[in-house]
Design brief:
A hairpin with a 5-residue loop joins β1 and β2. The chain contains 8 helices and 3 strands. Keywords: Signal.
């Protein structure tokens, strides 16, 4: 029974394909056209850069490509490394330091929607190894994961980094500290 239903469908496909003109585009051309349309649909895809912006973009791309080529030749591909191994290399990256200085525009607080609550972070993530903290001059807790110890902070930011695991061992009431830090 299924063979009888398949035969008319196959015949219809053959007839339709014989009347339709063959496309003059190769597979590569069709792929490139699709990729171009996808790029245009991205945020900023239809944005036209000024000559100065285009020059800055070309320079940034060249720096990025040079860093990628260097990483590939040395076998030190940062995304394949543990964060603590890659962190110092990332911070030395010329591209990273340029991007760090750039305005974030409308995407400034996008990450707020994708992270969990401060309460969960303090009561879970901060119990992992190599978590350091300090209180800023305004009394706001700052957390940083680092191995070895994070660099000495600027005095205006916080007096010193303290290993949280060691600090908690000296507390009488760890829950009180965790609750206060997550607010």
């Amino acid at each position: 029974m299924s063979g009888r239903l398949a035969l008319p469908s196959l015949l219809l496909a053959v007839i339709v394909s014989s009347f339709c003109p063959a496309t003059s585009m190769s597979g590569d051309d069709m792929r490139n056209q699709l990729l171009t349309r996808e790029k245009m649909m991205r945020i900023g895809g239809q944005l036209v850069l000024t000559q100065e912006e285009e020059l800055a973009n070309q320079r940034l791309k060249a720096l990025k490509e040079a860093e990628m080529h260097k990483a590939l030749s040395k076998g030190s591909i940062l995304p394949s490394m543990h964060f603590f191994q890659a962190k110092n290399l990332i911070e030395k990256s010329e591209v990273f330091n340029i991007l760090k200085k750039m305005p974030k525009g409308a995407a400034l607080h996008v990450h707020d929607f994708s992270i969990t609550s401060p309460d969960w972070l303090v009561k879970n993530a901060t119990y992992r190894p190599h978590c350091y903290f300090c209180f800023t001059r305004r009394g706001i807790p700052q957390f940083r994961f680092a191995h070895p110890t994070p660099p000495t902070p600027k005095p205006a930011e916080c007096p010193q980094w303290v290993l949280l695991e060691k600090f908690r061992k000296g507390l009488h009431n760890v829950s009180e500290f965790d609750n206060r830090s997550s607010q």
